[in-house]
Amino acid sequence: MAGQWTGIFSFVTGVVRYHDLAYLASVSDEMQAKRINHIYITEWDAGTWRVGDDDDDIQHWSVVAATLVHSPLEQALFLGAGGQVICMGSGDTHEEQLPNDDSAIPGRGEMRGLCAVEGVAYACGMDRQVYRRHDENDWRAMDAGARPAAEDERIVGFEAIAGFAKSEIYAAGWEGEIWSFDGKLWRPQVSPTNLVLTALCCAEDGYVYACGQLGTLLRGRHATWEVIEHGDTEDDLWSLAWFMGTLYVSSSTAIYKLHNGHLQSVDFGDDEPTNCFHLSSADGVLWSIAGKDVFAFDGNQWQRID
């Protein structure tokens, strides 16, 4: 039922698994007002919300990103700023932890992004951290070439990660940095912006798209990158998704689709969301997930989920 949870909860992010199955992270508005770090992971199954009532179902950390993996199990993964991970799906729910000694997250900064490449999870964060999930609870650093030198005092970090294959992965973030991984080393690419990049999408048209502050939208691959001078919004852009042959882009107030170099606002019909934020597509549907508005799009019509 629409509005079942948004009266007392706010959605943070989520991931679509099938057209009738999705996983979402949410927070209690009451606990959030008290500045209590926490998260609920909720399953949406063909219109039915499934969430536990026990205290054990509350995680006392903040989710920053989510993705869907296929190895070793098909599951939704939710990443915490401190490297905590919740894995859910295929009859299994368990917790994992990225490396957290002083040479990793505690000494280098928070995690920021998560993606799946060839079904395997990759995570990125501040100080250009990158980790690959080799198996259940087996995350290993893979930032060779990108890790700043010990004497480098600049604040750098990756906000997003995506890839076409394990030998072609991209990460982007602070100061407009774009890096590419060839299976062995990370290498910096010349970026046409110095604004923070917040999301990446390796699209079916063969390009990598990046978006970020002040309406920044880039397109490129390997060493060649360009600004898409759409001129349609200067709002910060937060999420990208490729759906039915089109790039969809989300700000905090609208969803756009890229058409002939311009960002066109999508038509939600009579029921428009108050806010937008994160996009997730799979199995013929595109979801928009924001605090008090969750919508699904089947290519013809937007429908409110909550």
Question: How would you summarize what this structure contains?
Answer:
This protein has two helices and 28 strands. With 306 residues, the chain is mostly beta strands.
Describe this structure in words.
It is built from 2 helices and 28 strands. It starts with 8 loop residues before the first strand and ends with a strand. The longest helix is centred in the first third of the chain and has 5 residues, at 29-33. It has helices at 29-33, 105-108, and strands spanning 9-18, 21-28, 40-45, 48-50, 63-69, 75-80, 84-89, 92-97, 111-117, 120-125, 129-135, 138-141, 158-165, 168-173, 178-181, 186-189, 197-202, 208-212, 217-221, 224-227, 239-243, 246-250, 255-259, 262-265, 278-282, 285-290, 293-297, 302-304. It is 3% helix and 51% strand. The protein is globular, with a radius of gyration of 18 Å. It is mostly beta strands. It has a single domain (9-304), classed as Methylamine Dehydrogenase, Chain H (7 Propeller). The model has no long low-confidence stretch (mean pLDDT 95). The chain has a 4-stranded antiparallel β-sheet with strand order 1-2-3-4.
